[in-house]
Amino acid sequence: MNEKHTISCLVENHFGVLASVAGLISARGFNIDSLTVSTTEDPTISRMTIVVDADAPKLEQVKNQLNRLIDVIEVTELKEGAFVDREILLARVNADGKTKAALEELVKRFGAKLADANDRSVVIEATGDTKTLDGLIEQLRTHGITKLVRTGRVALEK
Questions:
Q1: Distance between CA atoms of 128 and 152, rounded to whole angstroms?
Q2: Cβ burial, residue 77 (10 Å; 0-12/13-18/19+)
Q3: 34-51 burial string, b = 16+ CB within 10 Å, else e?
Q4: What is the pTM of this model?
Q5: What's the burial of 31, exposed, middle or buried (CB within 10 Å: 0-12/13-18/19+)?
Q6: Distance (Å, whole) CA 151 – CA 87
């Protein structure tokens, strides 16, 4: 059975590395649920956090093949409960004078904030782990989400 796995890759910060890694994963038939890349404390190295839906044997094969790429320094599977992860969410939600107060209370419960507001809608900004943001989205659906965007997962081992 497939399940979501989080892979952390340290890579050389060169042109084309992202395409090589993403191409290797997609060529093996995996859907990349989330992919984030940023430089680390060393500007010559980037950290890629990749979330894939895969069974364990195929995941091992992909990790081994990633390790063989010249620009890949280290590949680590982050095990559930052994890492801290966050995403950022922005959502435009329908709101009028009557519903705005309820939305303000809802976002406060999730540690989020109103990033923008007008007469017809609000933009909500939230940071949290995947489950927390999924829960917020479910609550916001009743108000009418008109636009939604999320970053990919960023994660560090504990």
A1: 11
A2: middle
A3: bbbbeeeeeeeebbbbbb
A4: 0.84
A5: exposed
A6: 6
Alpha carbon distances (Å) from 32 to 42, 45, 51, 111: 26, 22, 6, 28
Residue whose structure tokens are 């839906």: 53
pLDDT tens readout for residues 31-67: 889 999 999 999 999 999 999 988 888 889 889 999 9
H or E stretch covering 113: strand 113-117
pLDDT by residue (tens digit) across 100-145?
989 999 999 999 999 999 999 999 999 999 999 999 999 999 999 9
**Burial status of residue 116 (CB atoms within 10 A of its CB: 0-12, 13-18, 19 or more):** exposed
